[in-house]
């Protein structure tokens, strides 16, 4: 059966990297007879300029119809003065919440060819392959009540509510365990259950979920220790599962272990495994229009889409192998280029991946 893929190029380097990712997607579509139907829509600043809102109803309708969404990145300084509700990022956040994309997958995988780019010593990160599973639609980022209030004594007080229901914890737990099954079968759940009641419940539910996955090992770690362990001995982890805020922080720290933001893909999944796939980086206005952006994070996001939504692991693996092949050839965009490497443009990198796919 044909699958619908919605392409949202976004702003600044978004369309540049997306052109390369679409080339790769179309190539695997024909190589693996995937029967994909590609459609395009506007999101973010591009949508704001064209329609007055960052998430037009037409885009939302197409997104609901799609099996998977591939997004470039949105935003840029030209929209800084737009009021909060209509800013480009609101389009992205709106899409995540409308589609209930609660499961955010952020792999931190270090290509050995790029080991020198890591912030850690090569021996600590060589072969690093961890997957952070972050709850994306709950926790303190969304809890009510929230705000800034003025107390009787005139002092102002800011407050947010940290809340997770059992069902929210359970569904992110099941996602993490089922992903661990496809990997090294180890889940580390990160909480702060020595201080926060929310995460006492979190830990309890994770234990419960673990019973359904006897082949997967569950361990627990406090978030402060997890932060320390991530930079001390990151290879001890396989899958890390955690809430929205801890996941936000830990996934950015883990990203830096791999060196370049231009290499990191991500997925955000709903309960049926449909999802939105995008690079971890933003729209990089500082390098837009120069043809130098690294398209590999977006190309690797296509691989994640094939693995997690379209259930085509062999096509996903082919893309990942092609990326590795291109790095072996010494081809590098500016952001990952070191002495002795061959510097290539955005589209030359895309073409090199196509050639490697073919061979
Ligand atoms: P950024 O990730 O766009 O850029 C940070 C630095 O990394 C820049 O120096 C940029 O040139 C470089 N960089 C990023 N992606 C690259 C790539 N593929 N190849 C080579 N170099 C790359 O983050 P920044 O500058 O904080 O944000 C720029 C805009 O992007 C803002 O409007 C921000 O709101 C938006 N943004 C959007 C996101 C999204 O759509 N998911 C995520 C993060 C930021
Ligand atoms: Mg972040």
TrEMBL record:
<comment type="similarity">
    <text>Belongs to the isocitrate and isopropylmalate dehydrogenases family. LeuB type 1 subfamily.</text>
</comment>
<comment type="subunit">
    <text>Homodimer.</text>
</comment>
<keyword id="KW-0028">Amino-acid biosynthesis</keyword>
<feature type="binding site">
    <location>
        <position position="252"/>
    </location>
    <ligand>
        <name>Mg(2+)</name>
    </ligand>
</feature>
<protein>
    <recommendedName>
        <fullName>3-isopropylmalate dehydrogenase</fullName>
        <ecNumber>1.1.1.85</ecNumber>
    </recommendedName>
</protein>
<feature type="binding site">
    <location>
        <begin position="76"/>
        <end position="89"/>
    </location>
    <ligand>
        <name>NAD(+)</name>
    </ligand>
</feature>
<dbReference type="GO" id="GO:0009098">
    <property type="term" value="P:L-leucine biosynthetic process"/>
</dbReference>
<dbReference type="GO" id="GO:0051287">
    <property type="term" value="F:NAD binding"/>
</dbReference>
<keyword id="KW-0464">Manganese</keyword>
<dbReference type="Pfam" id="PF00180">
    <property type="entry name" value="Iso_dh"/>
</dbReference>
<dbReference type="InterPro" id="IPR019818">
    <property type="entry name" value="IsoCit/isopropylmalate_DH_CS"/>
</dbReference>
<feature type="binding site">
    <location>
        <position position="96"/>
    </location>
    <ligand>
        <name>substrate</name>
    </ligand>
</feature>
<dbReference type="GO" id="GO:0005829">
    <property type="term" value="C:cytosol"/>
</dbReference>
<dbReference type="GO" id="GO:0003862">
    <property type="term" value="F:3-isopropylmalate dehydrogenase activity"/>
</dbReference>
<feature type="binding site">
    <location>
        <position position="224"/>
    </location>
    <ligand>
        <name>Mg(2+)</name>
    </ligand>
</feature>
<dbReference type="GO" id="GO:0000287">
    <property type="term" value="F:magnesium ion binding"/>
</dbReference>
<comment type="function">
    <text>Catalyzes the oxidation of 3-carboxy-2-hydroxy-4-methylpentanoate (3-isopropylmalate) to 3-carboxy-4-methyl-2-oxopentanoate. The product decarboxylates to 4-methyl-2 oxopentanoate.</text>
</comment>
<keyword id="KW-0100">Branched-chain amino acid biosynthesis</keyword>
<feature type="binding site">
    <location>
        <position position="248"/>
    </location>
    <ligand>
        <name>Mg(2+)</name>
    </ligand>
</feature>
<feature type="domain" description="Isopropylmalate dehydrogenase-like">
    <location>
        <begin position="4"/>
        <end position="353"/>
    </location>
</feature>
<feature type="binding site">
    <location>
        <position position="106"/>
    </location>
    <ligand>
        <name>substrate</name>
    </ligand>
</feature>
<feature type="binding site">
    <location>
        <begin position="282"/>
        <end position="294"/>
    </location>
    <ligand>
        <name>NAD(+)</name>
    </ligand>
</feature>
<keyword id="KW-0432">Leucine biosynthesis</keyword>
<keyword id="KW-0520">NAD</keyword>
<feature type="binding site">
    <location>
        <position position="134"/>
    </location>
    <ligand>
        <name>substrate</name>
    </ligand>
</feature>
<keyword id="KW-0963">Cytoplasm</keyword>
<feature type="binding site">
    <location>
        <position position="224"/>
    </location>
    <ligand>
        <name>substrate</name>
    </ligand>
</feature>
<keyword id="KW-0479">Metal-binding</keyword>
<keyword id="KW-0460">Magnesium</keyword>
<dbReference type="InterPro" id="IPR004429">
    <property type="entry name" value="Isopropylmalate_DH"/>
</dbReference>
<feature type="site" description="Important for catalysis">
    <location>
        <position position="141"/>
    </location>
</feature>
<feature type="site" description="Important for catalysis">
    <location>
        <position position="192"/>
    </location>
</feature>
<keyword id="KW-0560">Oxidoreductase</keyword>
<comment type="pathway">
    <text>Amino-acid biosynthesis; L-leucine biosynthesis; L-leucine from 3-methyl-2-oxobutanoate: step 3/4.</text>
</comment>
<dbReference type="InterPro" id="IPR024084">
    <property type="entry name" value="IsoPropMal-DH-like_dom"/>
</dbReference>
